[in-house]
Structure formats: C-alpha cells, structure tokens
Design a protein that fits this description.
It is elongated, with a radius of gyration of 27 Å. Helices cover 11% and strands 1% of the residues. The N and C termini lie far apart (109 Å). A hairpin with a 2-residue loop joins strand 1 and strand 2. A two-stranded antiparallel ribbon has the order 1-2. Among the domains are: 110 residues, E3 ubiquitin-protein ligase SopA (Pectate Lyase C-like), CATH 2.160.20.80; 72 residues, no CATH class.
C-alpha cells in the first residue's frame, strides 16, 4: 500500500514528460512552418539574394522581400500584390504584366544595372554603359508605393499606376507611352526627357513635378494639380489640360504645343521654340 502514492507520482511524471515532449515537438513544427519558403531556388524572405532567378508567373502575393537582391529576375506575369519590396534591387528585372497592386516599392532600384567592378580590374571605356533597362511594360502597379523609387530609363509602356504613390520618384528618360497615371501622386517626381505620349494623368497631383523636355503629345491632364510644375521645353502638342488647378504657377517656358487644350484655349507660357506663334498668358 505504501508503493501506491509513489506509483502515482511516477505516472504523473510520465504524463508531464509526454506533455513536455509534445509541446517541444509543436514548437519545432511551428518554427519549421514559419521558415521562408523557396520558389525556384529563391528563398522568399527579406534581404534574400535571388538575382537572375526565373519567377515568371509565380504567386508571390504578400511576399516579404524588402532589401532583396532581385536584379535580372524574371517576374513576368508574377503575382506580387501587396508584396513588400522596399529598397529591393530590381534593376533589369522583367516585370512585364506583373501584378503589383498595393505593393510597397519605396526606395526600390528599378533603373539600369552596372555590374560591380572586380577588385583590381581596370575600367574600360564604356564599361559602365548599361545594356538594357527594366521592363515593366503592361505591369499593374496601381495603388503601389513607388515613393523615391529610381525608374530612370524604365519601360512602363501601357503600365497601370492608377492611384500609386510616385512622389519624389525618378522617371527620367522612362517610356510611359499610354501609361495610366490617373489620380496618382506625382509630387516632385522627375520626368525629365520621359515619353508620356497618350498617357493618362487626369486628377493627378503634379505639384512640383519636373516635365522639362518631356513628350506629352496627346496626353491627358484634365483636373490635375499643376502647382509649380515645370513644363519648360516640353512637347505639349494636343495635350488635354482642361480644368486644371494652379495652372498659373506652372512653368511653360519654351514649351511647344499651342494646340494644347486649356480652360480658355490658350496655353500659359512663352515663346514656342518651334516657330509657332508665341504663347500668351491667359
């Protein structure tokens, strides 16, 4: 009879040991499931190094890829909705028809790629000239965060950037033919020498944006905010600028395009340099 209490204690210890072991196993399983998944050799996690990987058509929705090295990655038709790509290196990435709705690309690199020089190697003439540019043709970037992103020389033809945050972004020399930028925040964005032919910029915030030397032929800027926007030397032929706000503060020095539509049919600016009659302030 004296052994009975002892046996109860031993059984209780065995039960506790079982529960403890099962708890440890559960923690291990949860930790394993929380580990980053791998897609075509690319570990999906912040700071990952996946350059030159093929992720065409992959489901990367909500992926945490901030600070990731993704230059030359193939992301055509990939689902990157609400992905975190802050500060990611996407130079020369193929983003054609990729879905980036709601993605965060703040500070991302999307411009030309120049291979790092090996230690002790000499720099030959023209070696820093990039061979091609990132291809985002037809990409859906609506409502994405591209604030301060470098998109110089990018191919954004037919891309949808509706409602995106593009303020302070560098889009110099970018091709935005027929791109959709309606209701987009373009505050202080740089479009120097960019192609915006047939682009839609209606209802956008263009305050302090730089459109100098930009081609805006047949583009639409109806109801846009033009506060202190710079259109000097831009091609504004057949641009629809009807009912804008803060038109008087914009700079149209030497802009071409006397056929531009404004509330009273006259473009605010001076001296068309292409031989057309000088523009008159309304």
């Amino acid at each position: 009879m004296a052994l009975e209490p002892l046996m109860k204690v031993i059984n209780s210890m065995h039960s506790f040991a079982k529960v403890f072991c099962l708890s440890l196993l559960s923690v291990a399983l949860l930790a394993g499931s929380a580990q980053a998944r791998t897609v075509n050799g690319c570990k999906i996690k912040a700071g990952t190094n996946c350059h030159h990987k093929n992720l065409n058509g992959k489901n990367l929705r909500g992926a945490k890829l901030s600070g990731a090295t993704l230059h030359h990655v193939k992301l055509r038709n990939a689902d990157l909705r609400k992905a975190d790509l802050r500060g990611a290196d996407l130079r020369e990435a193929d983003l054609r028809r990729a879905d980036l709705r709601g993605a965060n690309l703040k500070g991302a690199k999307l411009h030309y790629y120049t291979a790092p020089k090996k230690k002790g190697a000499r720099t030959s003439a023209g070696s820093t000239t990039p061979s091609c540019n990132p291809n985002c043709s037809g990409a859906n970037l609506s409502y994405s965060d591209l604030m301060s992103a470098n998109l110089s020389n990018a191919n954004l033809t037919y891309a949808d950037l509706t409602g995106a945050q593009v303020n302070n972004a560098n889009l110099s020399y970018a091709d935005l033919y027929s791109a959709e930028l309606g209701e987009t925040d373009l505050t202080s964005a740089n479009f120097f020498y960019a192609n915006l032919t047939y682009a839609e910029l209606g209802n956008g915030n263009l305050s302090n944006a730089n459109f100098s030397y930009t081609n805006l032929t047949y583009a639409r800027m109806a109801f846009a905010n033009l506060l202190n926007a710079n259109f000097s030397y831009a091609n504004l032929s057949y641009l629809d600028m009807s009912d804008p706000t803060n038109l008087g503060s914009a700079d149209f020095t030497n802009a071409t395009g006397c056929t531009t539509v404004t509330p009273n049919g006259i473009l605010s600016g001076q001296s068309c340099y292409n031989g057309i009659e000088p523009l008159v302030n309304p």
